[in-house]
Amino acid sequence: VEHACPAARYAVITDSHVAPLYAERVRASLATSADAELFTFPAGEWNKSRESWGHLTDQLLQRQFDRESAIVAVGGGVTGDLVGFIAATYRRGIRYLYVPTSLLAMVDCAVGAQTGVDTQFGRNLVGAFHPPRAVVTDLEALSTLPPVQLAAGMAAAIKHAVIADGGYFEHLLARRDAIRERDAGTVADLVRRSVEIKSSCTAALRFGQTLAGALQDLTKYELLYGEALGIGMLLEAELGEACGITNPGVAARIGAALDAFRLPIEPPQSLDTDRMIDAMRRDAAAQHGTVRFALPKALGAMAAGELGEPTIAVPESAVREVLSRFS
Ligand SMILES: NC(=O)c1ccc[n+]([C@@H]2O[C@H](COP(=O)([O-])OP(=O)(O)OC[C@H]3O[C@@H](n4cnc5c(N)ncnc54)[C@H](O)[C@@H]3O)[C@@H](O)[C@H]2O)c1
What we know:
two-stranded antiparallel sheet; 13 helices; 11 strands
């Protein structure tokens, strides 16, 4: 850590679940050469908020961390997004290092520069692009991750496979038992391949997320991010098939993969179609209020839009038709 992100003082920030497991180890390893203090916030997606941002920022100000200090974020995607946003804004931006501890964070959140918090108007609507100086991934952290959280991380890996690599999709299914048992070599390969895909495909990463964001808005915190992403991918693939964009059978294969990792394939409650469409229009990635989707053509290959764009506008009637099953 000192090598990747040198500083005279470190603020280690983590959530209340991860703190008792790993925070002291990280803090102690830094404290050999620098001053390292620990700050925690309550775990949970609902704490990825401006209130947590303000509270933690005030604590750093009170402890007089300056621009020569660095922050170390230790935790899942909530910690990465929240702490990254604190680093982006603290004294107009300071360095931070990210130690992802959930599978979702390792394969997805830790790659890229997106930071931010949720608001009552929608998720991730306030934030900044501020990449960590370095990411330090220790796969051993996965040993304490609850099974539902491991599955939520697999939703992101399945997405990477669908958008870029059909062989990887088959591999994930073939190795499902080894993955669920957290076999070190299998998981290391998976993290490596997903990180490669996440860093090279950009627009295609929207696949599943348009519907997932709306689902999360409507179901509040009943679905984990990864669970909503899984259902979002399934419904968007169905939408693609209904519009003749996605080859028949792709949605069924995605549904089977979600099932193999015990991810939900249906929303936990009935959905108000008008509210779903409204939520999609407010999404951080919507353009001029138009909802666009990144849709697969086949497993491992994305479809291109009218002028070769990576996202496609589909008729609202088709979206309503797919959602009608749950209304
Ligand atoms: N910035 C990005 O590129 C990006 C990409 C995808 C998702 N996200 C965001 O990531 C968030 C979801 O991430 P998440 O699923 O990691 O959520 P999370 O950070 O809430 O972690 C899930 C749960 O697992 C716990 N946990 C984490 N690591 C653990 C470990 N090793 N042992 C035991 N418990 C552990 C956490 O305390 C939490 O309760 C969402 O807010 C989403 O918007 C960001």
